[in-house]
Amino acid sequence: MIWCLAALGVLFASAIAALILRTHLYATLGALLAALLALPAAFAVLAGAHFADVVVPWGQPLGEIRLGLDPLSAFFAIPLLALGATCAAYGAAYLRSRCVPAALFNVLAGAMLLVLLARDGIVFLVAWELMTLASYGLVTFDHAQPEVRRAGWVYLVASHLGVACILSAFLLLGDSTLSFADFARHGTPVAATLAVIGFGVKAGVVPLHVWLPEAHAAAPSHVSALMSAVLIKLGIYGLLRTISFVPAFPWGPVLLALGSAGALVGIALAFYQRDIKRALAYSTVENAGIVLIGLGLGMWGAAHGRPAIAALGLAGGLLHVWNHAVVKCLLFLAAGGLVHGAGTRDLEQMGGLGARMPRLARMLVLGGVAIAALPPLGAFASEWLIYVGLLHGNTQPLLFVVAALATAGAMAALCFVRVIGIALLGHPRSRAAADAHEPGRGLVGPAVVLAALAIAMPFAAPLAVRAIAPVAAQLGADLDVAAVDEALAPALILSGAVWLGGILAFLAIRRVVRRRRAAETWGCGYTAPSPRMQYTAASFAEGLHRLLPRALRAKVEAAPPAELFPSPARLAVDRRDPFTRAAYEPLLDRLARRFSQLRWVQQGLLHIYILYVVIAVVLGLVIVTLRDGWAS
Amino acid sequence: MSHLFDPLLVSVLLLNLFVLGASRLRSVIGASALQGVALGLLTVAAHDHITFTVTLVALIAIGLKGVLIPKLLYKAMRDVAIVRDVEPLIGLIPSLAIGAVGTGASVIFARTLPVADSYHASLALVLPSSFATVLTGCLVLVTRRKAITQVVGYLILENGIFIMGLGLIEATTFLVEIGVLLDLFVAIFVMGIIINHVRREFETTDAAELSSLKE
User: Fold this and answer.
1) A241: closest CA among A293, A198, A297, A283?
2) Domain boundaries, chain B
3) I need a labelling partner for A194 at 20 to 30 A (CA). Which of A28, A309, B184, B195 fits?
4) pTM of this prediction?
5) How many whole angstroms separate alpha carbon A359 and alpha carbon A445?
């Protein structure tokens, strides 16, 4: 526990040091040191060690500050610390010599650690708010661009609406103090619903996800990586905490429904994005959905007395938290390298980058395979567990969830074929892409580390399942490790087989290729090909895009040429999030109009403002007097 | 508890009404200074045994509220060359009437407060006068135009809070009491400086004119 506090101190102190000394170096070193300090403690807790809470007495109404590290916290602290250090190293190379973002990054990491350690509502909310503000500062790093400012604004508003819900939930749960220890006694469905909404905003639950693509696209890549990998997961952490406070709530159906919706909508929207980072962000929405499906299945199994299914669901869902964290971090870092090299996030401007940045391209392909849950890599093992659990459950609603998950999986594969194919293969679609070059070691190195982790993850899955057991116990489900191992075995064998087959095939193909002489691709007799003759990102997505429900499609306004001879034609595509476009913007516009009628309150006169205060105080006094007079 | 206690409180209330009814700045500041002196005496009068703490608080209160701050305000008044607060937002007679009604209402309100138990029984007038004084301060703040009169309003508001602390001087620590007085002094000091600067920049200290920054 003392190590965690030390890590916390190092993170905040190094942020301050970086600001005072105006160098990012201390912040980066601080992030690495914090990971070294606290990671062993977190692993020890998952291995069964028990640390006493640190208690600091505080002023009267608040009772005490209590910080603790239980398995649930430790489980989320591990990706936070490990990926925080990796992203900090990447950020040092990505934003050279900028000390403010480096300091903010450490504040963000420290705040997230504090969220995990907090054992009472006050500290939790303060840390949560600090986390939001630090990430807001990082999201709006590029604030010269109006769309970045807009993204930051959307993020800030969404987060604060979420915090309002969390605060209300905590106030309903707590009585005299907001200590987590007291929360379990007051669990009500209303509080649970509020917590689901509040944490759902952070976790990217559909339809509360609208801030997510905006913020991830606007932020520097290592920040998007950390947000996608850890910040989103803290929303899920909050949900899991709430589960332990309010066990008597239909968590299974709620989480399964939210998860299915998230997985389907997330990947459907990811599919036709033009901005590579927006596509990755929507894929995060999808994966948050998959995690929720796993957890929902676990809760359903626990509630219906099916411990085997509960074990599979929880193990799959929690394992997916780790897998997705590593893989999405890898993808964002690799995409950051592409964006850095090609000078744009627009897929339509990329192309041919595979030949120009071969190492980075390999990382992106590896990440794409992993995130689509294809056999040899990380997410495959966790999704496998969820599938096995759902199929064992074998009731009609669960089979619908299987269908949703399968559809989402297929679309994820297509989505990443598109991202990889359009960005890496073919010919460059712009000057900048043609001149792209492989970024330096600082940008590739962290991605290589993560890729190695992603390769190792499925084989470490049995170990991870043992680490998950105490977390599951905390959520009220007894995790049968042997049963999960049994379910996991085919996935591991399959992964091993794919690796073996893949390596053999690679060696065989290389021998054949070595013998052949390289020649230009046959151009079908066409003599003047141009990069514009390739599939574009939009045309690749077109077929599936048409199959989507109308509500999820991008809004296309087209005026194609009508006459025999060329005439002016027009095509406009509105790629804003459909929920923003159809629901939030009209609603907020109407609210803004309604509230603008209250403008006259703002007179700008000092006297009037003092008068408002006086009127409020006098009214309060009058009400108290009248009420007491009435009572007596 | 001295038999002078209640008469002193009444004089504070009368001074409130005087401030509300006066238009010349000199007399408004003078009234607030008198009120400060009365507060210092009240501190002594409220206690049977005159301890070191009580004496110190009383002396500091008289020194600050009765001498130092009025001097600062007189100086500011001379610097900005204003004699009277013309055309307040609410006329003098109506604000007097509101002040009188407010004083009456404070008496009614003070009876419903649960804290009354912790006061000495013979301090029955303390809470009503405290509320009435705070209300007067707010009224001056709201209705007067000149920045100096508003500072006086703030001063009177603080006096009201000071009165509330009278009955509790043994319960609250000496440090808190001194801290409040120090805050007050610094605030008035800063306001005096700002008034001067505002006048130098904008040629007026009419707070009603300071609305160009509104949205």
Assistant:
1) A198
2) 5-201
3) A309
4) 0.80
5) 10
Token representation of residue A34: 């914090």
Q: A286-314 as b/e, with b when 16 or more CB fall inside 10 Å?
A: bbbbbbbbbbbbbbbbbbeebebbbbbbb
What ipTM describes this predicted complex?
Answer: 0.75
Token readout for B150 is: 């508003």
B142: nearest CA partner in chain A:
A607
Contact A605 B142 (CB under 8 A): no
User: Considering only CA atoms, which of A344, A310, A333 is closest in space to residue A227?
Assistant: A333
DSSP secondary structure, A447-460, as one string: HHHHHHHHHHHHHH
The alpha carbon of residue A420 is apart from the nearest alpha carbon of chain B, in Å, by 49
Q: What angle do CA A283, A289, A291 make, to 5 degrees?
A: 110
3-state secondary structure A392-419: HHCCHHHHHHHHHHHHHHHHHHHHHHHH
Instruction: Return the number of other C-beta atoms located less than 10 Å from residue A604's C-beta.
Output: 12
Q: Of A80, A87, A119, nearest to A102 (Cα)?
A: A87
pLDDT tens digits, B98-151: 889 988 888 887 777 665 555 555 567 788 888 899 889 888 888 887 778 888
H/E element holding A615?
helix A606-631
C-alpha dihedral sign at A142, A148, A153, A154: negative
Relative to beta strand A555-559, strand A570-574 is: antiparallel
Asked whether the beta carbons of A347 and A537 are under 8 A apart, the reply is yes
A552-566: pLDDT as tens digits:
888 888 888 887 888
The CA distance from A158 to A152, in Å, is 10
Q: Residues of chain B whose C-beta is under 8 A from some C-beta in A? A: 89, 105, 108-109, 112, 131, 135, 138-139, 141-143, 145, 150, 207-208, 210-215
Q: Cβ distance A344 to A350 under 8 Å?
A: yes
As a residue count, chain A comes to 632
Of A160-174, A391-405, A598-612, minimum mean pLDDT range: A598-612
